[in-house]
Probable nicotinate-nucleotide adenylyltransferase
Amino acid sequence: MTSSTARRLGIMGGTFDPIHHGHLVAASEVAHLFELDEVVFVPTGRPWQKSERKVAAAEDRYLMTVIATASNPRFSVSRIDIDRPGPTYTIDTLREMRQIHGPGTELFFITGADALAKMLTWRNAADMFTLAHFVGCTRPGHHLSDPGLPKGRVSLVEVPALAISSTECRDRVRAGEPIWYLVPDGIVQYINKRGLYRD
Ligand SMILES: Nc1ncnc2c1ncn2[C@@H]1O[C@H](COP(=O)(O)OP(=O)(O)OP(=O)(O)O)[C@@H](O)[C@H]1O
Ligand SMILES: O=C(O)c1ccc[n+]([C@@H]2O[C@H](COP(=O)([O-])O)[C@@H](O)[C@H]2O)c1
């Protein structure tokens, strides 16, 4: 039962390798549409569905997420997925968030269309829907449809579409191409300072 005084907390999980404006616009738009009090960005520790490729160090991805969200008073970053040993499963993220914030907080897990389409392959998928409402956002190149997820627990929303991916940002850095304006300025500077994505 939803109480009108319940706190509404958004959770934006991602590998954020690196974080880009597509992530930030999706979180901002969902916060507006669902009247969220806060959106917590949760960088993955060990993203098991990306195990076939090299992922930047968790501390670099965490720090980039902090830099990118620092100017928005409604955005924050959590280390819970980075600090938990083993592969990162959203069921664990949601259980931990529920424990931290208690029953007076409604949880909204924010994903892009690609992640939503794969959600039934996630660990303990059925249990996740008892812990949070899921919000799937449009993403260029990915069709936004309901892939048989539980009715009433998933909302599909149109957000201003930004054709940006972390893969493209990494490829551009590797090729010596600019990523200015695809990511916040501080992220361009952090990537240069740490020499990320050059190999
Ligand atoms: N441009 C975008 N618009 C809307 N949602 C996005 C966009 N980019 C990523 N997302 C969503 O943000 C979440 C975290 O994404 P992730 O960190 O994997 O970024 P990515 O750009 O998909 O990375 P990669 O290209 O390395 O796979 C996922 O739910 C993903 O669907
Ligand atoms: O729980 C799972 O099995 C699971 C499998 C793949 C992805 N996720 C979560 O989905 C979010 C986006 O993941 P990614 O890999 O697209 O960055 C992030 O919070 C991941 O932990 C979760």
